[in-house]
Amino acid sequence: MPCRVEGDGTVPISAVNTLEDAGAGDISFLANPKYEKLLAETRASAVVVRDDVHLPRPMNALRTRDPYAAITILIVEIHGYRQHPRWGLDARANIAPTARLGREANVGPGACIDEDVVIGDRVTIYPGCYVARGCRLGDDVVLYPNVVLYDGTVLGDRVVIHAGTIIGEDGLGYAPVDGKWLKIPQIGRVVIADDVEIGSNCTIDRATLGQTVIGAGTKFSNLIAIGHGTKIGEDCMFVAQVGLAGSVTVGRHVTMAGQAGVVGHITIGDNVTVGAKAGVTNHVAPGLTVLGAPAVPMAQCKRQVLLVQQLPQLKRQLRKLQEEVEALRRLVGLAQDAARRSGGHGSPESP
Amino acid sequence: MPCRVEGDGTVPISAVNTLEDAGAGDISFLANPKYEKLLAETRASAVVVRDDVHLPRPMNALRTRDPYAAITILIVEIHGYRQHPRWGLDARANIAPTARLGREANVGPGACIDEDVVIGDRVTIYPGCYVARGCRLGDDVVLYPNVVLYDGTVLGDRVVIHAGTIIGEDGLGYAPVDGKWLKIPQIGRVVIADDVEIGSNCTIDRATLGQTVIGAGTKFSNLIAIGHGTKIGEDCMFVAQVGLAGSVTVGRHVTMAGQAGVVGHITIGDNVTVGAKAGVTNHVAPGLTVLGAPAVPMAQCKRQVLLVQQLPQLKRQLRKLQEEVEALRRLVGLAQDAARRSGGHGSPESP
Amino acid sequence: MPCRVEGDGTVPISAVNTLEDAGAGDISFLANPKYEKLLAETRASAVVVRDDVHLPRPMNALRTRDPYAAITILIVEIHGYRQHPRWGLDARANIAPTARLGREANVGPGACIDEDVVIGDRVTIYPGCYVARGCRLGDDVVLYPNVVLYDGTVLGDRVVIHAGTIIGEDGLGYAPVDGKWLKIPQIGRVVIADDVEIGSNCTIDRATLGQTVIGAGTKFSNLIAIGHGTKIGEDCMFVAQVGLAGSVTVGRHVTMAGQAGVVGHITIGDNVTVGAKAGVTNHVAPGLTVLGAPAVPMAQCKRQVLLVQQLPQLKRQLRKLQEEVEALRRLVGLAQDAARRSGGHGSPESP
Fold first, then answer.
1. Which residues of C are catalytic?
2. Which of chain B's residues have a Cβ under 8 Å away from the Cβ of C345?
3. Which residue has the higher pLDDT, B335 or A285?
4. Which chain B positions have a beta carbon within 8 Å of C76's beta carbon?
5. Which secondary structure element, helix H or strand E, spans residue A47, and what is its range?
């Protein structure tokens, strides 16, 4: 990534920090122009900024086209990713005799791995995790504390699941029988492809039949609910508290903003963006941005919101118009009366 | 259930599967006409369909009035319900001396059962569960991994709680004192009746005083929050991410769709349906379907949504009408002028 | 607190209960006038009521200006706060050699405390909790079962975290690289000040850089999601299922009602109230109450909701007006025709 140094390129840097919290030895950055005024106040030893940003005072700066990407590289270089504790196969872990683990397994105390589980190499499973019968985990998987995988769940390579997330629980599958709910055995499973990262306290239902699928490279935040049999494409990004009902099909590279919801049995195309709190009730064509509940294309939603905010004005205009029409009618009535009085012919009432 | 066989009634069947995923030896079904085109492509050995469905090619079919109920029966017959691991009383479980367990108890490693707990027969408690002091569990209860029951929680027979759900935590009970929040001890409890099934990562507050109640046969999906002192009737169905505030009373056989919310201290009648994302702010009479936020009866909500979508059109019509009235006014003004010029009598300005 | 006794001031009281559930020996209360009719039916031995409440029959009553505060004091006096089990340092807890615990530590079986953790005096950590490397916990902290603190989390004195809550997980921090998401190491942390209580199954993201902060005395209900780098002030009250995106700044004494959501990078002033299900998309000035999605000041939102509910009427009025204008136009046209026929001069078409 091409960068240009401004000021002292030899200043020692040992950490990346925010403009607000940075001190001596820290490098910080400005990506969002909203925070430009913090540049004047920061005590960072250096800053990463765009080529065209005006520095309010002489500073040590790295200038680049994409400060966000640059700071990402710096964080990776200087700080790196989280190092996990090294338990090996902790003696207090509960591993079934028929479970098979790959090389360099790292399983914490109290973690449970049930019968017929097959696990790849270099996998880390924190304490409190439960991996039920017949699960398959790829290489380099990380399960943070208290993750639960129900029976038959499949995770690809490099899948990371944050603490408290449950995968493969039964979905809401009941048949109505005489006013009671008869449970339908949920015999499908969940399949999560390579490089997926799931946040904390999410719930992903197993399919009633077949599979619930999360595509490769997709990233979830926290408290997300995915219904049974839903299939999500690759490289999607779901923000916290999103909920998808069952049997939804989501394309590739779809963004779902916070608290958005999707009803069952619909299809969301590739590269769709669903706005925060949107309620999607119909198929969404590829590339669209939809907002609102029920969700509509962005331009339409913004117009609707604006018009709803203008409703008091609209109502006033209507009332004014009613008065004007009433006044006109009186005027016309008087004019007719006058015409009738003046001539007597051509009255509209008797044409 | 009366069924009619079409094609080869002796084809061997070993599993139930979706139309998409089925192969040789699988039976599948069509209940939702939306998926009718999949009939032509399925590789299932047989399908369950309604009497009136047209098969696109010769297939082995079971024809019945209710394919969904039929496939439920087939799943139960062929696959059955989940079999739990058999731990008996695992030596690594932590069971207080004063806890009493019924026959055939099945308690996994690391599960904790505190003082004065009483548990029925044939109960399964997975690893990571915590059953606090004084809880009462009926027969055939299942607690999946990492379920937490706070002190004094009561579960009826055949209650099933999925992984990560918390029952009986303190509700948001604080008294304001000089701008600070003084905690009110939450001394009530949660009582869950027979045959309730609760999904994963739900939270059900204990009552401040008295009881929070979930009625017999009610089913919850995941990530549902129930406030303190709320009482829910029998045979309800709550979809994921529903939230009820405290002191709500919900009748029997109420359906709450995904992400719906209910404010505190109101009553929802029997057989009510609350739509997805609805925000219920007032009592709802029995049998109603309500939608929207604030929630209103369905027909009214649909009309509102339609009218909001028509607002641009409404605004255009209003503007056009304003122009027409303006034109009319000019016309009338000219007519008056003409009349005045032609006669001079009967002018509206001087009646 | 000044109180006045009515009836028998010597009746023995052993518990506080609701008007509905109370029996002999119980004291109950009426704070919400909604429940006044229950006074006639209660079997409580005494009731706490406001000075001006009319008792439907002779009852033993404590009259006071603030029955809610009075009953809080009575609950504390008679029932007190929850007593935790006494594990001491349970032999089955997993405590790293470099972890330092204060006096009277109370750590349950299976709890894990990792390297370099520092914990204050009289702390209770229930089974299934995981306290990762480098966390700092103040005095009198309580972690209910299955709470997870990621590395570096800081909790002040008297912080209480309910079961299943996760603090310090990675936020949704990825940089887009060629259509894929590159994970940005999340190297910040979460800092929770004194006297905070957090409900069950919440998720509080660590900051990407710097800190996510929850201010002293703030109380959360359940299933709340807080994004990375968000800073919340003192003495706030958040109801269940609230979601805040990242880099939000929230002032002091802010109330967020159930299922409310806030987009990233905005500021919410002191003493703001955000209504249930509101979607806040812009800065909110101190003291405001906002409702709706997008959220607007309460009076504006209520007017909008009312006007949307009046839309059918508005549409009818518009249609009626269109008809009236059409009728007027015909009338004017006829009048003109008549004028033209009667005189031929002064036609508006040829002025």
1. 228
2. 338, 341-342
3. A285
4. 184-185
5. strand A46-50
For domain C94-301, which architecture applies?
3 Solenoid (2.160)
Q: Which residues contact A293 (CB under 8 A, 6 or more apart)?
A: A261, A277, A278, A279, B277, B293, C293
Q: Which of B203, B317, B341 faces C318 most closely, judged by CB atoms?
A: B317
Confidence band for B329, pLDDT divided at 50, 70 and 90: confident
Chain C residues 153-172 within an 8 A CB cutoff of chain A: 164, 166, 169-172
Interface test with B, best of A170, A220, A242, A277 (most B CBs within 10 A): A170
Which residues lie below 8 Å from residue A40, measured CB to CB, with a gap of 6+? A56, A57
Of chain C, the percentage scoring pLDDT greater than 70 comes to: 97
Touching check for B222 and chain A: CB below 8 Å? yes
β C61-64/C3-6 pair status = antiparallel
User: Do C69 and B261 make contact, defined as CB atoms within 8 angstroms?
Assistant: no
Tell me the pTM: 0.94
pLDDT, tens only, B227-243? 999 999 999 999 999 99
What value does the mean pLDDT of chain C take? Answer: 94
Taking CB atoms and an 8 Å limit, are B72 and A182 in contact across chains? yes
Q: What is the pLDDT of residues A124-135, one digit of tens each?
A: 999 999 999 999
Domain B3-78, CATH number (from 3.40.1390.10, 3.10.290.10, 3.40.50.620, 1.20.1740.10): 3.40.1390.10
The two beta strands, B15-16 and B26-29, are parallel
C72-121 per-position pLDDT tens digit: 999 999 999 999 999 999 999 999 999 999 999 999 999 999 999 999 99
Q: Do the two domains B3-78 and B94-301 of this chain adopt the same fold? A: no
For chain A, domain boundaries = 3-78, 94-301, 310-351
- In the complex, which subunits touch B with 3 or more CB pairs below 8 angstroms? A, C
Pairwise pLDDT comparison (A230 vs A31), residue with the higher score: A230
Residue whose C-alpha is closest to residue A259's, from A249, A270, A248, A244:
A244
Could you give the CA distance from residue A50 to residue A29 in angstroms, rounded to a whole number? 9
Q: What is the pLDDT of residue B343?
A: 62
- Asked if the bond preceding B294 is cis, omega within 30° of 0, the reply is yes
Interface chains of chain A (3 or more CB pairs under 8 Å): B, C
A310 lies within 8 A of chain C by CB: no
Whether residue B235 and residue A337 make contact (CB cut-off 8 A), yes or no, is: no
